[in-house]
Amino acid sequence: MYQDFYGFTEKPFTITPNPDFIFLSRIHREAFAHLFYGIDSHAGFITLTGEVGTGKTTVLRTLLSQLDTEKYKSALIFNPCLSGVQLLAGICREFGVEADEKDTYGYLDALNMFLLEKHSEGSTVLLVVDEAQNLAPAVLEQIRMISNLETERDKLIQIILAGQPELNNLLNRHDLRQLNQRITVRCRLVPMGPEDTGNYIRHRLKVSGCRVPGLFTTKAVRQIHSYSKGVPRVINVLCEQALIMAWTMEETRITSPMIHRVVSESRYDAGDVGVLDSILGWLRSRKVR
User: Fold this and answer.
1) pTM here?
2) Structural domains in the chain plus CATH codes
């Protein structure tokens, strides 16, 4: 398609997380710093929240890739629609822990032995639960029980709960107040500002090998930020559609009117709802993180 026309080695604006295209805006860098501080200071519970498409998965992937595997032992749970026992089994499996008894007590006992061993070795154990807003309250309570595994002076496991803003509503339930009170570091991702939006677009074009200088005009970038509200995933969708449109017209510049046309057609296809709402709704329906 347009890749050869613009000299791309690969598509620059796919909506799937690609480590090669990682761009950390000021907001993402601040969130990353807070997460690392929470882990390194053994804060215990940490939350990372943000609307769909704001880059939670990008931050988590970057964090996990930067941790020294000799010092940190990490596990990622990305299918939270589990029972309490299934969650414990999944955590043990991720850490390579074998339980003699396949029940809550057996998994917790095996996990406790593993955590004590890693603590004696000077290792920090990290559990990351993504899409945590989908966890049942009973499962969240099970996670709180895991956090009870500690020594007299230190937490044996650091836990990051990452999810959409609904996670905060869930944690504010009266029956989860014990868990909510244990969260000592809270990070919130918000959309990017105009400057970071422009830098984000230019970064992805550069990584993809674009041979056309100034492919997106300054006014086009401003339009993209205005319509996307700075949400990275929405920026990707708009840029992808703009590239397809410009390619069909054999244009080497993507202009403000083109962005307006892309948005207008998206709005029409969505039944005249706002383009941001329609794209975010589509992303939610696909359960894209």
Assistant:
1) 0.85
2) 2-20+192-286 (1.10.8), 26-189 (3.40.50.300)
